[in-house]
Write a structure and sequence with these properties.
3 helices; single chain; 63 residues; Rossmann fold; mainly alpha
């Protein structure tokens, strides 16, 4: 989970490492989508990007 863009972020580095060393476990990268987002409060932007607490609880409860 990162408070930055998904593309080119920390999650991308993890995915590259995983690929290079043939790790088979699943990785789900969560962060801000690579698109223009309107201005808003931190809470609004986190909700939009689905990295707020409610969204994360929902996503992580599927594991």
């Amino acid at each position: 989970i990162e408070d930055g863009t998904i593309i080119g972020g920390f999650g991308s580095a993890i995915a590259e490492f995983k690929s290079k060393y043939n790790y088979k476990n699943n990785v789900q990268i969560l962060g801000i989508p690579d698109e223009f987002i309107e201005q808003g409060t931190v809470e609004e932007l986190q909700r939009y990007s689905e990295i707020n607490v409610k969204s994360l609880v929902s996503i992580l409860s599927t594991y």
